């Protein structure tokens, strides 16, 4: 395919104000003399063909780099006869720096590598967080990876293994952050690299890290191991700033937008325009803090809540992550090591107990939360449920022992 | 040459890179010590550290799948205005962090001049997170980048303004597996017909035990067809999820006519105010019409318009619907309610109304 194909349908995607990926594809196809130009001409042809026929024409296969079993997504064209130069169009999933910070020097180096060995098309980022270097033939997969690896970057996950992770911007720029998300992400994931690079788990395993209940990286719903920041003591209040919000929003405004929107009715506006907070009722949902950023902030006793088992549709329907650790303080190096150990325990339990093609959440549903907690060595806590059991069909002959356990734990806590 | 003897290069399993080495110096200096923030204008966040240091973040939309020329252009802008640092958000917006307030306006002007919309903050509609589609996935029934480009053209005003009751997150997925996830509005393709099996190929390429295990409703059985081992699908059971295709490409689920788009609303990931929630079906059967999918845009705009008019400050879409009730949602959006809106999957009864609470 020597000439740029006619793409009347794709051309329509160049109109309109939003930046167009088609314009980018065409620019690459126009880079006469560069190795990616023919690839991109061919790809444009295949994509236009998809638009005309409303079908996709890629199939998978197996391609990898030396030493690893995952991280490259192989794509072979089913219409290579017509579009030969993009007949192999593999993607390298590359793990980004935690929080997705870059300097321009590193981005330019990535561009140079991908222009030389690949198609010149890069997605920042995929839905799991990878930088996706899209469009490489089989021969160049190893050379591209070597070059990126020399820059200090590593392949991410694919298949039945640990997947690439994300953390929010958090401590780097956000005053709501309740722990060091980047540090937690790097410690937990770097400890699991073997299960990312040589996948042999029952199915995929994802972990994500958000600094507070706003959950900017969607950890709750979209990871098997979700770490969310929170705090245990009282919300910090600057009453002078509260009064300024009352002055600008009005009393009705503050009542409508802050007080009445608190999910646990923990807030009340006093007659003197100060804010009263019943911290025992507060669930650290972040709403009031989000509205009054200057007046309210998270408390000092900061830590994390951990949820397990979130995922999307396959195979039994959507599952939300559920609380397995209501609170753990995150301050010292030991706290971070505790987190690494817990993640490892959960991963090992999953590896040993899940069925083929079963996610953590499905396994928990199949074996029951109690067996899961037993397996990973965590105690039950009322924060783990929306409400206690409603079904009466259960044997409870071990009741007295469980009561003793609870009492001894609580006695110990009280004595601390 | 000695190259032949050289041991092959083994990977340096360096893992997740440390962000500190790439971070803007003012962020690095005040790591974990920020005090408060506000939004001086759409697309700009202003953060103040406990040290008194301040940074302005200018957020701009990108097309996510970028050619190297676009990335280099974004780098040139960062070198000129933002000390050579950027970061990306989970929704593929780029963020320029500036420690000198006087650079904010020229930076915005530059970005807009180069065709990168500034916005995506606060109560705007942010960039749509999307999956791969025809550009790269092996099972998509539609494109992702194309649907998103078309929608973002329509939503341009909503990206560059903050006029919604609360932030709006839209996601798209190009098959029912739904890598794209859920959001305030989730758009995903639905296959409406069971897979067509090419029996001649099954014996060669299909991982048969894997595909039988993959089916969520146990609709696939091994069978002998024309004397060759193949598979059969109980079409009454099949929910057209598409999961059988990756381990068995001869089970063709892609279909130009019968793959339709569906729109779901009210998903929310955060624990802010209400607990996280799943998205719910509101419209199905929208035609898959490249290159601009006008029917999808029209329906999305209808839903957004109703939410914009009727939602109260800080209500996310699911919270708005919780307040007004589903009957009013269907009334305000003018969308039909059908038997397909009633859940019959696991735990379906939990979604039925077991009360005297009805809306009029
Ligand atoms: C051949 C099949 C598939 C392909 C080509 C594919 C492709 C992708 C890609 C490219 C991403 C983004 C990756 C990244 O950002 O690093 C992704 C993410 C995702 N995939 Fe898939 N996928 C496939 C099958 C599945 C299946 C079977 C499921 C679920 C059962 C699934 C669920 C997801 C989810 C939930 C995400 C988003 C995760 C997140 O946001 O954390 N995918 N997929
Ligand atoms: S999740 Fe919380 S800490 Fe993290 S960026 Fe969002 S608001 Fe900030
Ligand atoms: S953080 Fe949420 S639950 Fe706690 S007081 Fe504020 S609004 Fe209420
Ligand atoms: S949603 Fe489906 S078609 Fe789209 S990228 Fe994910 S698996 Fe592929
Ligand atoms: S499309 Fe889904 S439900 Fe139908 S046979 Fe395939 S895996 Fe089973």
SSE topology:
The complex is a heterodimer of chains A (416) and B (360).
Chain A: H1 8-11, H2 21-29, H3 36-53, E1 58-59, E2 72-73, E3 76-77, E4 90-94, E5 101-103, H4 104-117, E6 121-124, E7 131-136, H5 138-150, E8 166-167, H6 181-190, H7 193-197, E9 207-210, H8 219-222, E10 225-231, E11 236-237, H9 239-257, E12 267-269, E13 275-277, H10 287-291, E14 296-297, E15 302-308, E16 322-329, H11 333-353, H12 360-367, H13 369-376, H14 399-415
Parallel strand pairs in A: 8-9, 9-10
Antiparallel strand pairs in A: 1-3, 2-4, 4-7, 6-7, 10-15, 11-14, 12-13, 15-16
Helix pairs in contact in A: 2-3, 4-5, 6-11
Chain B: H1 25-29, E1 34-41, E2 44-49, E3 54-61, E4 65-67, H2 68-81, E5 85-88, E6 93-98, H3 104-113, H4 145-159, E7 170-173, E8 185-191, E9 196-197, H5 199-205, H6 208-214, E10 220-225, E11 228-233, E12 251-252, E13 259-265, E14 280-286, H7 294-310, H8 317-324, H9 326-333
Parallel strand pairs in B: 7-8
Antiparallel strand pairs in B: 1-2, 2-3, 3-6, 5-6, 8-13, 9-12, 10-11, 13-14
Helix pairs in contact in B: 4-7
Bound molecules: protoporphyrin IX containing FE (HEM) and iron/sulfur cluster (4 copies).
Descriptive tags:
heterodimer, A: 416 residues, alpha+beta, Sulfite Reductase Hemoprotein, domain 1, five-stranded mixed sheet, four-stranded antiparallel sheet, 14 helices, globular, B: 360 residues, Alpha-Beta Plaits, five-stranded antiparallel sheet, four-stranded mixed sheet, 9 helices, 21% strand, binds protoporphyrin IX containing FE, binds iron/sulfur cluster, NiRdtase/SiRdtase_haem-b_fer (chain A), metal-binding (chain A), 4Fe-4S (chain A), iron-sulfur (chain A)
Structure description:
The complex is a heterodimer of chains A (416) and B (360). By secondary structure, chain A is α+β, with helices and mostly antiparallel strands. Helix content of chain A is 37%, strand content 15%. In chain A, the strands form 5 sheets. Chain A has a 5-stranded mixed sheet with strand order 8-9-10-15-16. The model of chain A has no long low-confidence stretch (mean pLDDT 95). Chain B is built from 9 helices and 14 strands. By secondary structure, chain B is of the alpha+beta class. Chain B is globular. Helix content of chain B is 25%, strand content 21%. Chain B folds into 3 domains: 19-113, 2-Layer Sandwich (Alpha-Beta Plaits); 129-192 and 256-341, 2-Layer Sandwich (Sulfite Reductase Hemoprotein, domain 1); 196-252, Alpha-Beta Plaits (2-Layer Sandwich). A 5-stranded antiparallel sheet of chain B has the order 1-2-3-6-5, with helices on one face. Chain B has a 4-stranded mixed sheet with strand order 7-8-13-14, with helices on one face. In chain B, strands 9-12 form a two-stranded antiparallel ribbon. At the A-B interface, helix 2, helix 3, strand 1, strand 5 and helix 4 of A face strand 1, strand 3, strand 4, helix 2 and strand 5 of B. Strand 5 (101-103) of chain A pairs antiparallel with strand 5 (85-88) of chain B. Protoporphyrin IX containing FE sits between chains A (93, 126-130, 156, 164, 206, 222, 312, 314) and B (132, 137-139, 177, 179, 181, 246). Chain A: Keywords: 4Fe-4S, Iron, Iron-sulfur, Metal-binding. Chain A: InterPro entries: DsrA, NiRdtase/SiRdtase_haem-b_fer, Nit/Sulf_reduc_fer-like_dom_sf, NO2/SO3_Rdtase_4Fe4S_dom, NO2/SO3_Rdtase_4Fe4S_sf. Chain A: Residues 87-150 form the Nitrite/Sulfite reductase ferredoxin-like domain. Chain A: Residues 159-377 form the Nitrite/sulphite reductase 4Fe-4S domain.
